[in-house]
User: Which sequence fits this backbone?
């Protein structure tokens, strides 16, 4: 018996044994995967699978860099699992044979109401880095917003764009104003159409324990003196439309709307900056309760834990950025999936169960 047991032990240690971190069990079988090697793409049928594939393939340090979040990761987990409290009320008697997913974002047409959010250092996963994401976004007809902390330069990313491909660019509020102005100018000169200005880590350093195991954070240089006044002054540093990203309260959504920004981007940065921040769903519910008029003033974009089309639908139903012209009723969070131009708008509403 003993040699057989020994043989089995060797066999099992070669296969990937991956902690799936409490993600929903949809039957993913990793037993034939080899640690350090990308698994067959056909094995991956949802975004959770892709996370597990990344965990299998990347070095522990690179996985930690992408996966980590602040402190006890309460916000990171809430982003993923707050959807459990949502019920989508779908109406049955609607012709949905010709659904159109197209939408406009800041007036530019895209084929779907979701986009690729800014995320630092794509080159830690693949040598093609951000250029791969530019190509993927172009092929899918969706918006890509590269990060200012990308592996590739602003110019390299811009050069990868397809004909007529519209991209926006993310920026941080650096305390070094020379650097800030220089980057704003380069972003404008290379053809990006809008600036997504991340305002959630001015004066705050995300404490990410998982990442700390591998290296000390180098995410510094952010301006600790940044206020709503500086935000309006920053509008003078570029002619691009500015979209504040990382807004986490209804109060700040309202401030941005009143300052005349064309859109505001509700986000807790994937839980990476501060822990115990609310989720986009909770913030949107507060906006409906306190300042429902802002849905008619500006576009509202949102992210955090969006892994399924049902999550996109939930945020659309709560009035997030699908369309910027539509009236959103206070007591009925309806939103056409397809925009005003669709011949067959499909309505859903969302309610929360606490
Ligand atoms: C690895 C990683 C890097 C990120 N880098 C940036 C960044 O450079 N600038 C930024 O504004 N947001 C950054 N974010 C936050 C994302 O834009 C987005 O708000 C967040 O990932 C959404 O939450 P989710 O990861 O649960 O989908 C990063 C997120 C991740 C996971
Ligand atoms: C500020 O940024 C500029 C442009 O990137 C750079 O040349 C300069 O060294 C920076 N200053 C400091 C104090 O880091
Ligand atoms: C922006 O610049 C204009 C023209 O120089 C100036 O009048 C205005 O006060 C500036 N706005 C802010 C908020 O600094």
Assistant:
């Amino acid at each position: 018996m003993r040699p057989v047991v020994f043989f089995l032990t060797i066999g099992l240690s070669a296969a990937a044994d991956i902690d799936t971190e409490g993600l929903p069990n949809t039957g993913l079988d990793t037993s034939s995967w080899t640690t350090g090697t990308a698994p067959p793409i056909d094995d991956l049928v949802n975004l959770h699978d892709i996370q597990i594939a990344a965990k299998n393939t990347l070095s522990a340090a690179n996985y930690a860099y992408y996966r980590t979040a602040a402190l006890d990761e309460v916000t990171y987990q809430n982003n993923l699992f707050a959807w459990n409290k949502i019920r989508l009320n779908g109406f049955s008697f609607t012709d949905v044979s010709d659904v159109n997913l197209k939408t406009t974002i800041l007036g530019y047409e895209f084929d779907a109401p979701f986009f690729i959010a800014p995320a630092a250092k794509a080159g830690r996963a693949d040598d093609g880095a951000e250029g791969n994401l530019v190509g993927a976004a172009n092929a899918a007809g969706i918006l890509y917003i590269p990060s200012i902390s990308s592996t590739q330069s602003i110019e390299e990313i811009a050069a990868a764009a397809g004909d007529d491909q519209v991209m926006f660019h993310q920026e941080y509020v650096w305390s070094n104003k020379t650097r800030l102005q220089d980057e704003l100018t380069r972003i404008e000169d290379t053809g990006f159409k809008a600036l997504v200005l991340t305002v959630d880590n001015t004066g705050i350093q995300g404490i990410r324990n998982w990442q700390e195991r591998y290296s000390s954070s180098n995410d510094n240089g952010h301006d600790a003196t940044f206020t709503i006044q500086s935000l309006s002054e920053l509008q003078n540093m570029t002619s691009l439309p500015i979209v504040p990203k990382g807004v986490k309260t209804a109060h700040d959504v309202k401030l941005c709307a009143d300052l005349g920004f064309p859109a505001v981007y509700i986000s807790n940065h994937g839980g990476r900056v501060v822990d115990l921040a609310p989720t986009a769903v909770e913030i949107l519910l507060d906006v409906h309760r306190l300042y429902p008029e802002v849905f008619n003033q500006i576009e509202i974009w949102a992210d955090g834990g969006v892994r399924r089309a049902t999550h996109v639908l939930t945020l659309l139903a709560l009035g997030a950025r699908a369309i910027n012209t539509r009236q959103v009723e206070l007591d009925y969070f309806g939103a056409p999936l397809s925009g005003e131009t669709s011949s067959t708008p499909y309505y859903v509403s969302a309610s929360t169960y606490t």
User: Anything to note?
Assistant: The chain has two domains: 2-57, 85-352.
